[in-house]
Amino acid sequence: MPVYLDRPLASHELLHTNGSLRRSPVQFAESNARCLDIGLINNMPDRALHATERQFISLLDAAADGIVVRLSLFALPDVPRGDSGRSHLGRFYSSVESLWNRQLDGLIVTGTEPHTSNLADEPYWNSLVKVLEWADCSTHSTVLSCLSAHAGLLHFDGIVRRRLAEKCFGVFECTRESQHPLTAGAPSEFPMPQSRWNEIPENELAARGYLVLSRSRDAGVDILARQRQSLFVFFQGHPEYEADTLFLEYRRDVGRYLRRERDICPSVPRGYFDTATAHALRAFQERVLHDRREEAFADFPAVYAGKSLEVSWSRAAVSIYGNWLAYLCAQKERRQSRCDIRVNVLGSGVGL
């Protein structure tokens, strides 16, 4: 399986860190149903742009079984950016304005850090709504991740997310709830990373035609779907996360708390660290709760070792995204068959 980016990226670090990423098209044929055009709209903050690209490319790489993926990177114009972020987007990304006259097989839209309590007040809201409307009529399926999932629910059906008393943070056991092509072959129970301050009111979903594909007893809804013109798939969790992503988020949040940029001291991610590491981090948390000084960050436990953190959710993540790619292939083939029939009918003069 090759994944390749549709723009020349000779200097892009992904070409050096991801051995499967191709610089140029590899046996891609528009007429081949197993050659997919997929877009990634990366809304993550500047410091997470590279990691998010790497995460989704690696997951698509692992999930595509004999499928060629041509990946295009896009960015919303209104997400706040610094100089480094704008420079990176200018070199490697296309504006969403270039989407309106295109048709993609699939689209992935990431979340980002919110700046307001009401998603409709975010500076990028109007641009995101335009993307959602375009995706509904121009893709076979669209994946909405985290905040973008909440935005999709709000825009399409007025479902307002609810603020949690504490952050849902860690790796939670989820149960497959529905028989659906996207979860076919996935384990009946599987772990999945969660990292969010909000939840979806589940009692509103069924009434509006949403199907819950997986949920966690402790974290609530994990994956849900709704068939509009396009099949929309909503992830509250993060199957794309790498082994150390939750750790890096936790360390970031601890730093913000000690610098008094946040009022709440973050809890240690659940179900993620081994017992000794979790114990050391909780002990550190107790100390800084009683002695909140920026200097205390220097004593943050040196517990991270990449080899000790496992991607326990990998099997489920690859299975679900593999099913998503297979769904896109089936829909592309179906669309091409309809086009062929129409061409044959017109060519024969039937009905003219």
How is this fold's topology laid out?
Blueprint: E1 3-5, H1 14-17, E2 21-22, E3 35-41, H2 49-63, E4 68-75, H3 83-92, E5 94-95, E6 106-109, H4 125-138, E7 141-145, H5 147-157, E8 162-176, E9 189-199, E10 211-216, E11 220-227, E12 231-235, H6 245-258, H7 275-290, H8 314-348
Parallel strand pairs: 1-2, 1-4, 3-4, 3-6, 4-5, 6-7, 7-12
Antiparallel strand pairs: 8-9, 8-10, 10-11, 11-12
Helix pairs in contact: 2-8, 4-5
| Extended strand count | 12
Q: What is the 3D form?
A: globular
Q: How many helical elements?
A: 8
Sketch the topology as an H/E string, one letter per element. EHEEHEHEEHEHEEEEEHHH
CATH architectural arrangement of the largest domain? 3-Layer(aba) Sandwich
Describe the protein's architecture and organization.
The chain is α/β, with parallel strands linked by helices. The chain folds into 2 domains: 3-242 and 316-342, Class I glutamine amidotransferase (GATase) domain (Rossmann fold, 3-Layer(aba) Sandwich); 245-308, no CATH class. It has 8 helices and 12 strands. Strands 1, 2, 3, 4, 5, 6, 7, 8, 9, 10, 11 and 12 form a 12-stranded mixed beta sheet that branches. The longest helix is centred in the last third of the chain and has 35 residues, at 314-348.
